[in-house]
Amino acid sequence: MNAETSLTRYTPKEAVGRLRRGDLGAWPVTGGLVVIAAVFGTLNEHFLSAQNLTNLALQLAATGTISLGIIMVLLLGEIDLSAGSVSGLCAVVMTILYVKQSWNPVAAIAVALAAAGAIGLLHGLMHTRLHMPSFIVTLAGLIGWQGLLLYLLGQGGTINLPFDGFVSKLSDTWLPPWPAWALVAVLTGGWSAAAVIGRRLRRAAGLSVPPVYLTALRIGGVAVVLAGGVAVLSADRGVPLLLVIFGALVVVLDLVLRHTVFGRWMYAVGGNTEAARRAGINTSRIRVLAFVLASVLAGFGGILAASRLSAVNQASGGSDILLMAVAAAVIGGTSLFGGRGRPYAALLGILVIQSITNGMLLLNVDSSVRFMVTAAVLALAVAIDSVARRAGAR
Length: 394
Fold this sequence. Notes:
The chain has 17 helices and 4 strands.
């Protein structure tokens, strides 16, 4: 096939063909978000209010960050059941050093994240060197790290963080309007420049490029969403710093996975481990690094959760945090079979889960119903993933 022919392959007909092959992208979850907003917005007038959407933005940051780590291991077809316990343990380590030992908060956070990295390294080595299934390794971690958390907390069970301290301020800092709008302009301009450069590079390499109107629609759509979000949040307290931090993590991880050798190797190992090994990729190293990233992101998510509560206790990292983080990754479009998914899945998935939770709380729906609805959404997401995988294999 010559270069001219390859340049014309990316057509609307080809896009339809991709959908028929099961490459649905973010369309199902995006459509789900629209339906959720319409239903709960109709049933309760406060659901789409600026105050409620600001609270929703605060609620999704911590669990969404943990979900980012879950995506790292799901891309390899593995699982990390210890993420919740690791998040709570790291929050406790940070709080003890910061409050009890009077450490500088930044140093305390750094040590806690280093401890999370060490935990991920241990999990990765147990999986790759001892050939233990990741399910068993991280299940043991879930139990063991939860026990260590309880041991470190001791009899008191709760340690409060200073309300006016650095850590608590992370969840009580809001961007004024002008920095928020400047951020929208920078993100839109940066994506536009990257799209132009990417098109030129693909043309120079003789690769297919999407139509200009399709690229413009994507950039315009994201710009409208970002601008609408800033306008709504600025009508209340402003854009929360927690949301900016979570969004930055999503963007950085997406760039790493799509534009670095490590990212390509991650997808290669997750897609076909044996083929990746024969191509010269050190698959064991990639798996270890994935577990390290998963634990570090879980630890950071635990610190963000502690910031919101201004405390850590025996329930830190417990309850349904792990289940919601895994569900967010899968609902957002990350394949349980490995090789497919992007960090944006965590953002979309956690938006779905938190929107359902928030909407049902506003309607005073019993928690039992909320769990069943969340389970149904998760089952539907996995069913779509399974169907798409079979369609893609034909």
